[in-house]
Amino acid sequence: MKKCSEMGSKTNGLWEWNLTWRRKLFEWEEEEAMELHNMIQRVQTSQGCMDSWEWTHSKDGQYSTKSAYAILAKEEREATEITTFSRIWNSVLPRKISAFNWQLLQDRIPTKMNLLTRGIIKDIQDCKCGICGEEEEDTKHLFLKCNMVRWLWMACAKWWGIKVKLEADCWNTFQVAGREPKEKCIRDGWDCIWNSLAWTVWLARNQNTFQGKEINWEKLLELIQLKSFHWITAKKERYAFTLTDWFINPVACLKDCHRKR
Ligand SMILES: [Zn+2]
Q1: 143 CA distance to ligand 1 centroid (A)?
Q2: pTM (2 d.p.)
Q3: Which of 65, 90, 175, 258 could make a disulfide contact with 185, Cβ separation 3.0–4.6 Å?
Q4: For 225-244, what is the mean pLDDT?
């Protein structure tokens, strides 16, 4: 292996690479060599130092599987964020619902526990769930774990004939929901239910918390069904099913329209 100092020279104080290869490069390799050259062009070498390997992703320059894993996890997270963002913003949802759901997935909704963290609520005793009044109200509890909210999830899943996995937090639950079912039109439709459910729960919680209005859960289920119907049919003219069709079998409605395209 050659040293860096043998792979170029300084001209007028600036390092210029002069890469030499042990054999003549194939045509496809030429392209890669060019790419490599472009990548290292901005790198300036230090004089009077010994060549050594350095892992730039850790402070001490030493490679560790932990730091490599952290980079891969970060890349994965960034890629997932982009997909999640477009799932929410390119959907049939009204803008304010998209905005709410993006905030929800980032855990920035003003739940009581979030208000406690921000110092707006002073006492943890005042952080009981606005729906059940039993557990502390954080995002996970309010949208996934609270007893009647769970019932609502299961009722929607039954209506769609699918299984719902409620993960440790909203972000992961949304990711898992995005991987099933197989057909994109059904996945998009289910995203719409996801968003409709979260928004409806939030409004009901607010009315219950601030106006003491009791929640009628059967009515909430109907509201989710109605809202999702209006959102989906308003944006996609090819969807010609009726509200009754939608109430009876939403998956068949979406599949049917998908086939007719
Ligand atoms: Zn609760």
Answers
A1: 9
A2: 0.71
A3: 258
A4: 85
